[in-house]
Design brief:
251 residues, alpha/beta, Rossmann fold, seven-stranded parallel β-sheet, 15% strand, binds NADP nicotinamide-adenine-dinucleotide phosphate
Length: 251
C-alpha cells in the first residue's frame, strides 16, 4: 500500500532515542521530510546521520527542552523556516514517573508539564496551519490507563487522551485528525533502565505480555505512519494499542 507520505512534513518530539527515534526513521523511510527534536543534540545528529545514510533527506535537528515557556514557539519557527508548514505532529517526548502518596509537588508539576502541558502547547502552534491547509495529523504517544501504581505520567497521559478526543471532535471536519497510540513495553532508553537485563525483560513479558516479548520502536512507528497517511482519514479520536496483548480490560 502506498501511504502517500512522500514530501509530507513531520515533526517528532523526543526523537533522540527510543520510540521517537524509531518513528522518525519509519516516517523518513516512507518519504516524509522529518524534523526531530529533543535536548541531546549529539544523539539527534546521530539519528539524522543514520536517516541520511539510509538514503533519505537529512532531517532538521532542533535542540530544545520542550518544557520551557518558549519551546513551542521555537519549534514552530524552526519547522516553518525549514519547511514552511507541518503536516504531521508526533507528540512523543515523555517519561514515566512513579509518584506514590507523599511525592513532592515539584515532581507532579514537572511531569504534567512534560507529558501533557508541552503536548498541548506544541499542538496549539501547529494545528491552526493544519486547519488552514485542510490536512493535519496529531499523533500522541500516551500510555496505559491500567497503571501498576500511582504514576504521574499516567495522569498526564489521561489528560492527553481526553484532549485528543476533544480535538478530534472539533477539527476532523477540517481534515485534522487526532489520535493516541499506547505502547505496552517497547525497547527504549527508559525501559533499558527499568529492565536492565534480558532476564528482567523476559520475566515481565512472560507474566504480562501475551506476545511474550517487548516491542521495538519501529512497531510504534509503523502504526504512526499509517495514522499519518491520507488513507487513515476516517481514524480520529481513537486510542490504539501496540502492546502484544498486554491490555486486559476493555473500556
Ligand atoms: N517504551 C515504552 O514501553 C513506553 C510505554 C508507555 C508509554 N511510553 C511513552 O512513549 C514515549 C517515548 O518513550 P520511550 O520509552 O521511547 O522513552 P525514552 O527512551 O526515555 O525517550 C524519551 C525521549 O523524550 C525526550 N525528552 C525527555 N524529556 C524531554 C524534555 N524536557 N525536552 C525535550 N525532550 C525530552 C528524550 O530526549 P532528551 O533526553 O535527549 O531530551 C527522549 O528522546 C513517552 O511519552 C513515554 O511515556 C513508552
Amino acid at each position: 500500500m502506498d501511504l502517500q507520505l512522500k514530501d509530507r512534513v513531520a515533526l517528532v518530539t523526543g526523537a533522540s532515542v527510543g520510540i521517537g527515534e524509531g518513528t522518525a526513521k519509519v516516517l523518513a523511510s516512507e518519504g516524509c521530510r522529518v524534523a526531530i527534536t529533543a535536548r541531546r543534540e549529539e544523539l539527534l545528529d546521530g539519528v539524522a546521520d543514520e536517516i541520511e545514510a539510509a538514503g533519505h533527506p537529512r532531517p532538521l535537528v532542533i535542540k530544545q527542552d520542550i518544557t520551557t515557556d518558549d519551546a513551542a514557539a521555537n519549534l514552530r519557527k524552526a519547522v516553518d523556516d525549514a519547511y514552511g508548514r507541518l503536516d504531521i505532529l508526533v507528540n512523543n517526548a515523555g517519561f514515566a514517573v512513579p509518584a506514590p502518596v507523599g511525592t513532592e509537588e515539584r515532581v507532579w508539576i514537572d511531569t504534567m508539564n512534560l507529558n501533557w502541558g508541552a503536548v498541548r502547547r506544541v499542538s496549539d502552534q501547529f494545528v491552526p496551519g493544519m486547519i488552514e491547509r485542510k490536512y493535519g495529523r496529531v499523533i500522541n504517544i500516551t500510555g496505559t490507563m491500567e497503571p501498576f501504581g500511582i504514576n504521574a505520567a499516567t495522569c498526564a497521559k489521561a489528560a492527553v487522551q481526553a484532549w485528543s478526543k476533544g480535538l478530534s471532535r472539533e477539527h476532523s471536519k477540517d481534515g485534522v485528525t487526532s489520535n493516541c497510540i499506547v505502547p505496552g513495553r517497547i525497547h527504549s532508553e527508559q525501559n533499558e533502565r527499568g529492565y536492565p537485563t534480558v532476564e528482567d525483560e523476559l520475566a515481565f513479558a512472560a507474566q504480562h505480555i501475551p506476545a511474550g516479548e517487548f516491542g521495538d520502536p519501529e512497531d510504534i512507528g509503523n502504526l504512526v505512519a499509517f495514522v499519518a497517511s491520507p488513507k487513515a482519514r476516517m481514524i480520529s479520536g481513537s486510542v490504539m494499542y501496540v502492546d502484544g496483548g498486554m491490555k486486559r480490560f476493555s473500556h
